[in-house]
Structures
1.
Amino acid sequence: MSTVFRIAMATLACVFGANAFAALGTSAAMDQRGQLWMAYAEQDGGAANVRVARFDAPSEKWLPPVLVNATPEPVSSDGENRPKLAFGPENEIYVSWTSPTSAKYTGDIRFARSLDGGKTWKAPTTIHSDRQRIAHRFESLIVDRSDRLWATWIDKRDLRRAEQSNSPYAGAAVYFTYSDDRGASWQGDFKLADNSCECCRIALALDARGQPAAMWRHVFEPNERDHAFASLSPEGGTKPARVTFDRWAIDACPHHGPSLAIANDGTRHAVWFTQRDGKGRVFYGQLGDPGPTNVRELPAGASHADIAVDSDSLAIAWKRFDGETTRVETWLSHDAGKSFVPGPVLRTAVESDQPRVVAARGRTYLLWRQADKTSVTLLGQRRLSTEAAHAPAAAGISSRVQAVRPFERKTLGAIEREHEGEPFWLILWDLECTYCVKSLQHAAEAQKRRPGLRIVTIATDPVREGPALSKRLALLGLRGDAFAFSNAPTEALSYAVDPTWAGEKPRAYRYDASGKRQSFSGVLSVEQLLEGGSD
């Protein structure tokens, strides 16, 4: 795929009223259809209303905001501790925020959800089981590729226990919980790590397997505030690994958390703030073992950087004051972070939030909320080889299946790399094959029984049939990446799938975690899909 960047700036006057900007902390995220949303708090005295709003790209306007919590309550809405939002596959909108309690530096993690695209909202709930009047703050929210919902936060219950027993304890702790039923109930609390920094945001991203991973500022012995990384799982998460080695020793609150973006090939791109030689700096690097590689220093004065990745396209944005105005500056990479070129620069003379960069479904956006307006900049739009690859799902059809993308001679290698280390099914089919429909029906049933079952489909129909293919898959209720043959010769594409395949359909391949695959011809049963089988 070729990658192009098109700058299309939409600076939009805000329509939320003057009192809406007493606190400017705003989050940005993209839903399953690639639409940009933001979440923020509209202050009303000591309480606040949390709202979400969707950006309408064709008109370059924000649609009227939607109220999340019918009853106002205290809401943290500064740059590091602001409302968050995430999206499920069936039009679910999830919103979380920290609600400060009466004691200083204490709070609860609150959560609200809409199951109908924001038309109606369930009453907010507190997601952690611990109800002590302590700090539960700086939450983050994410949905994995199995549609499981995760939340992390900074927690001081272990510090309180240490204080009660006169034991030493540095910092706070990172806790998490998850939901398998669209936020109706939560499993947890699970401790991911002791000794986190007390006042920095936690960065969440999905790894190459579609599972959540976290990066945060940690307090390492003897007193170094570097960064740690760990993966989350229902079993409790992996052991935290140190991923930066700047050795910033300080008894202070940096108020400056990292940002993390993980590419399909597993490369972990990150930006973080630290101090070297007495000077504060922001760095970009690729997290590895024993330390980051390809490290680059952002310009002096850069702060609160954010990062997003889409295929080989990478975008970084940061805030900087030039002596007269506040600027948001950007770097763009077309080669997965090997090199960068300057991107657009935005300026304001009024109060403003930190910049947010989000990428999904071929688009990369920069959102910057200011006291008098909210700016949306389209930093990048990935150009696919055919317009059909961008075809939206038909009206009234589930959006769980992604738009059909072209399958080319090298696409199979990309699919295998994306699913490296995890089992998955590759199923070939076409619109005229009745046996193929039976196989796909069984695949959808298998996913219902095992939501984490990963299935990739390749239609031998031409990719220009993308709308019809998307509609068929959506009607069947099948989730997963979908491809269709590109304009290359059919024989060449069939050979790229399997040189020994004679063209019969349905045809399928079961990949195990090691990457070894087994071929199947004919209709797959639900049991085969769940357990494997033989030709």
Note: The CA atoms of residues 332 and 375 lie 18 Å apart.
2.
Amino acid sequence: MLRVVVTNEATVSRVDDDAARRRVMEGHGGRRPVDRWALGLVILTSALFLAQAWSTIGAPFGNSHDGRNAGVWAMGSQSLREDGVIASRLGSHSQLRGTYANHPPLIYVETAVAELLGGSSRAATRAPAWLGSLATVALLVVLLREAGLRWTSSAVAVATIAVTPMFLVYGTMLDTPVTSLPFGVALLVVWQRARRGRRVPPGLAAVLAALAPLAGWQALVVAAVVGTWALFELRRRSGARVVWAALAGGAVVGFVLLGVWLLWAFGGTFQVLVEQLRLRTGQSTLVLGWGTLFQSQWAAVGAMFGLMTVLLAAVGLAFALGKGHIRALALVSLAVTIPYPLVFRTGAAVHDYWNYWFLLPLAVGIGMGCDRLLSILSHRPLITRAVPLAVGTVAVLMTLGLSVRPPAARQVVVQGYGAALAENRTTLPPDQRFAWHAGVIGKPASWLTLATGRPAVAVADADLARVASEHPRDLILVARVGCHDRPFTIPDVTYDFETVAEAAARPPLGFAACSP
């Protein structure tokens, strides 16, 4: 019998490529040492993310996706901390905001814990997002390594997706797509290890499978896929049955807990959630055609990921679907992401971060593509060692470029801070009951409720005169669009508090103010 001892990556590629790499990953040939260059690239990626996001981590919540989403969860955290678990229904109910339980509740708990430990700063409130993003970077590397890819390939894949506008802009946004991704990837790591026959603590498997459905809708799909897979493995009596039982049982527990919480939060009915489902799927008042959906997704993919990144990932995914050791991961990564914008198409059309979870299949595809390239170049170790250095240089340049010339999504977030600054320099009359707002301020405006301690109420232009007659001394936050003739640029929006009478005399008109 010929015995082959694997000593490094170049030998792995020369001897057998896939088969030898699988033996190494499964522990039959000894575990490959950490590639210091690749590890350095992962550390550099995390540092670039923190450096680029530092100014937004502690920024106020304003009139943007970042501020509107964070305001919702921060209100729930405040209610959970001040009113208690029962009165707040685990953060879903607030006296000022009412009930919001359209998404799984773990983000309420995470935010409350972060604020208890880190204080009331915005950086602490956003901690589940930006710390979760750092965890996602590390977990994706571990996942790709468990799938049999080289250190270098794994690091290059993660570095590539971590310098996209999607990750750099929205990796600090407190919302369930961002905070649930690390839970979904962690569960996939456990699943991948179990599939390869590697040791997995059953308790860890059960906890992750139970937490995923409570973290977000996409993570719930991951739990459903992994739990179903585990049931089939149990039926086949393959592998470590206790681990498969833990994964299946944990997923069931998570689904049950989520269902119980939803009924509790909504007062014993799913009707509110059903109405939201109809709205997001284009079956309600907001109807969206498939042509409009694909047009919006083409624009969003190009702006948030870059068409070249998507093309490279698509080529790599095609290779991955033909390779046994990574085929299952590629299929699952596509199954838990592609249907989401197709089903919830109205949400995908109006939220440029809706496809945040596509970071997962992009990482799998780019990692696989890089692995194939390194296999071809395995006889040139100097070139393969230079890959992390080259990618790191590109990552630094791209991050600097995005900082110097921010993408549109970043400009909207920064512009939205103006609403928070206007609130900071204004004190509402003590007898004013509501935080009125008018103009191009999106819903929900929970960030305004959080800042003023009053329910935020939108006022249409036609209602300004009526509100002025009923509340003559009240102030209203007005967002006015500044018209300019610069094409393909974001309209300027200015924010200020005015008396309701002043706003009635000069209605903000919204974007119609710039119509000829």
Note: The two ends are 83 Å apart (CA to CA).
3.
Amino acid sequence: MKTVTHYPFQIRAAIAFCFYIVLLIPVQSAASYGQENKIEARVIAHDSYGIPHQLGHVKSNYDVKVTGSIIRTKLTQIFSNDENVWLEGSYLFPLPHNAAVDRLKMFIGDRVIEGKIHKKEIALKKYEKAKKEGKNAALVEQDRPNIFRSAVAHIPPNSEITIQIEFQHKVEWADSGFSFRLPTTITPRYSDIKSVTETKLSISDGWQVLPGERSNVVSTTNDKPKNDLAIKVKLAPGYPLKSINSYSHNIIKTVNNDGSAEIVIAPHDARAARDFIIGWKPDLIDLPRAAFFSEASQFGTYGMLDIVPPKMGVVSNQKREVIFVIDTSGSMSGRSIKAAKRALLSGLNGLKESEKFNIIGFDDEIEKAFSTYSVTAKPYFKSLARSFVDNLVADGGTNMLPALTESLSKNKQDGFLTQVVFITDGAVSDEKSLFRFIRKNLGHSRLFTVAIGSAPNSHFMEETAIAGRGTYTYIADDSEAESKMKKLFSKIELPALTDIKITGQGLTDIVPKQVPDLYSGETLSIAMAVNDPKSKLFIEGRVGDELWKSELDIRHTSSDQGVATNWARSMITSLERHNYTGLSQERTKEKVTELGLAFHQVTPYTSLVAVDVTPIRTDNNKSVKSDIPLDKPNGLSISLAQTSTGYFKSLMFGLFLAIASILALAFDSRKKAVNAANTKNTFGG
């Protein structure tokens, strides 16, 4: 008689789950080759009963005012709830990495609740307590220097709650013009997971924004995003304007008789999928060489100085070795890799035959155009290099450390100055360890970052350039890659000012403490505490082999709003930078917390919280927590194999282990059944 074995329920359930995953894999695999049109993801939340609900969405209105070199922005976030349940909204959003967030308002009907600054853990407790008591509450926290989170408790069914955040940052000056960049979405970060056996993986629709830190995701859907965007800019620079240009969106601009201008984003281009970048040039024959502003506050008098070093006709005989490093990870797929390739080829074309070069491509691993040493930039080697670049494909994780190690620690050519041109979107999560590595291993080399894509990690790119004593260039689209790279190479052929030192008489707490090299067309921005109305600032550096000195008389006569806030933010940035250059974590936390509380600023250790005094809910049911997804960065091809967690590889490895375990269990169960049957036949059972 034939024996039929019935496998235990657990084995059958596990087999069914594996078949489900196997059926899921083709969808994910298709995505891994950039076929984003096949992804129709929907991000949902579940209540305490397991019932799914569509997430809420956020409409963001930016009201920007530029006065001189200070930018003041009111960001209004409208949290909408289209469901018949109460929602708690949580939204991760980017800001300029030097933004000082210092005000929060929550609007409940006709009432306005002002936010207050507290230590981070105290603010969170106040928010959670208000949520438990059924009160409306809003919380703003900083996760990274350029990534913040806003949370809103008890959004009523089919209703909305509005909060308003205010922040300040500075105008940027370069190439005879002024500009600012307003980030609106986040490129997912890469996190190097060493072992899947030590990591709890979960399947969710969307890319992880901060792997292992926040549950927020970037939506992968191709539908028109719900997170609408509106931007209005009031430009009052204090001088006549020659031109105003947008480098990212279509705009509508109006120039007034007083020299000011108003700019709004065109309605058909209002989506939070790429950074908003605007630039303007003054209608002046000769630009001023320096500008000083000051403000008297309750904590003292503070100053802000911008100075442009003079051009000096020094010809350099320094021989150069240029190492191009190009990011070919999954986050660069789509338009970004095209722009990166064009940028690299443009830089390659700008090399002289007497100069040496090499190219390093990296994702999970590195690949070099010339395996042993850098080669001379002669036509033959340039041709080989172009073929190497043409064959580069964007996939895999963003494992940046081996590429940095290769470019900074090796390939040194005797008598040559090594300049590393690093082309990436900066989609990494472990930023501080990379900063430490660069500072420790830079030596006499210089590192220049070239940011690629609709929403690069500007904090990482700029801090990397500072650590590498180089410059930061942003390329939003492949159409501008050639012109931007030509400007970069014309700059780096000869630094304008190196080995810069700043001291003061009657001035204290001068930041930045460590100044990178300055290149042609750049400005030096300095913040300080002014202790004497008649003070002096001394700057010295080197132009080639010549010593350059400048003495400036500082006269505190005016009260320009925002200067004290700028100093506090600059000091906080300097302290955080010293955290990975020698200052202890405890001392950094103490000083940053002190400044955050005094100047009412959101920092890694302080948060803003607004709480209504009147309970809005009386039932004990929990709100559905809604992690609202950001819009996918424009031009990014979604690829689950290229996500920040190495998802597809982990999934396949986990599936292999699961199937192996199931087969082992099945074999063991079968063996036991056969043994039982044989025993029964032997003893006549």
Note: The mean pLDDT is 76.
4.
Amino acid sequence: MRNATNLFGNLYRYHQFWFMAIIGIIPSMAMAETLPRGLGPASMDSYRQTIRLTFGSEAAARQARLRIAPLYHDLRAAFSTRMDDSNLNNLRVAEVMAQFGQKGTFYLNDPHNWWQDSIDTGVIVPRERFLEIPRRLLNGGNSVGGHTLNHEMLPAMSKNVAFHEIMGVRVALEVAAASPVSSFVYPFVFYQSELRQGDDRADLEDMLRRSGFYQLAEHRYNKDWDSGLQDGLFIILDGSTSNGKYSESVLTQPRCDDDRPLFLVTMHAWVKQWGGPEFPKLADIYRKWSGRKDWWYCNQNEYAAYRYQALHSRLHITVEDNLLQAVLTRPNPLDLNDWTPLTLRVEGVDKDDVVSVESPGAVVERVDLGASPVFDIFHGQEHGAVEVYAETVNAGNADQLDEVTSRTEGLRALLYRKGHVLTLALRNDGTQALQDIRVTFRLPLRWTEGVVRKQVGTLAAGASAKLAVTLTERTDPEHYSDGVEYDVAQVDFCGARRARLFATCETPNCKSGPSFARNGFWNLGPLPGDLAGFDPQIFAKAFLEGGSPQKEYAVPWGENITWKTLEPTKAAVLDPDIIPTSGKSNVLRSYKWDSTLYFPHEKVLYVFYGQIVSPKDQTVRAVFSRKCVKHLTLNGQKVEGEELALNKGQNDVRILYAPAPGLGSSFEESNYGCYFRLTDAEGRRVENVRFQRPRAP
């Protein structure tokens, strides 16, 4: 079914422009008067604008064909830069981009934290790093995008942590940069585990949509999966000025009208790879690919917003005498999170045939693109851009509004959750009324209500309001309730300026259910797999074959080692199907600065000791990585396949585990720990079992 959906989705995307064009030229036939809700795959609210084109004659008005251009100013392609991570030397990259009129997006982590691969650029950390660095990166028309708060491998995180990483970085960056964020890239370009059959990928997409992201700067993502997210053709050029014949052909090939791609170049602000502190190799790229008259040089917010509007806006056209009137239904810019105008082209007539173009309450600008009349229509004046961004944090889930000390344009807000009810309390402490108050609740995956919008309207000076949302728990809540829940209310309103206030709250939830493996094992390790004279399999042989566990073990590289568990708060960030090892995404030899983690070996192994309690004799299937699980014993018998014959009562489980670093990288999901899940023959989780740690050895 998913493959059929993908095929339909791809055909839909490729041909939708012409479908819309046909709708645009049909006179007022059966066009619904009801304003559509949930416009497009990101379920954006919409509004209408009226456009009036006066022609020199009735014949010209009836001959004219109005269409939405697939790309801004009907250009052939878009060109942009992508830079990942909160590298301080992004500031130098921005300077190089500006020299050549280039624009792009810096995909950042928590803006409180910055690192630097080289100080040779002369860039120093400013005092107000949270605010100053993101805002400096915007110079020249750039934007910032989300890359999670802590650069974690999202499929290895618990669902609540993953949502906080995605939603939280958007909140933090919009407040820090005072600029909207709608584009995202996955850390390590890692969005699914091979063991989950796409379930985690679908969950993460849902989190992105709930968080307000609708673009991924990664063209490979949609090749085998119709996500509905905007994407672009990404060419990695880290440290290269040409990337060989491939980039040359891609950047010069002709494109058809319904396939207007975004070319994304570069990826990281690494001084060494770019030839030194002045980034000469990067300058060579921009020198070569700048100044193309048929390319749109843009950032990702602009591109995503334009393409989404072009794909999902609608034109309803009527003609009377020499007047062509078009009703444009387009996404609300508060949901687009961008105020890029739409370009409309009038075909079938000369530009001299159009006497005037106007739209009540909106700016319309003519564009000189040859013989055809072309114009940009901006968003209506009542849909102006956000100027002020702020956040109120309720980390303790308090329910007293007076405990909130901060105000934005006079508005005080508090978000809290009690059980299945999420409440937003508002009070206008200013001296003037607040207008156009629109609240968007953005919720984690535990709740079936992903995005809930409510209109408050006007809040008079001194007045208060409360909005309550009753939440519906999903049918399989255990996997989605683990850890601390992060809820967000996005409050958009007009005071002296148009403002956005994020009210956030954090609520501890229940621990992972007993059918999850995370808390059911002791851990012995790390053990070196590359130490001369030491063989981990021989070391663990007696235990793996059923021998009694010892309290501690003598080892040749230092002090005796003992059975242990990862500290609970560190383990709780992981997916509950993962038996924790280090809880980190890279090999332990990388942590030279941390004596509690550093282990100077290329290969490491761990031994796990746990129990599965079953209410009956039953055979289940164990899902785990065969390349990492070197030995699995159940009740003293080595398991060769995936089936586990569980006895009624306690079942002894012993595992020898070896994390496998990814190709060319020390970052790998398996470094966090061992994925281990029990399913039935149809792949459904076995919920009548309980993982538990045996008594401490």
Note: Residues 1-36 have pLDDT under 50 and may be disordered.
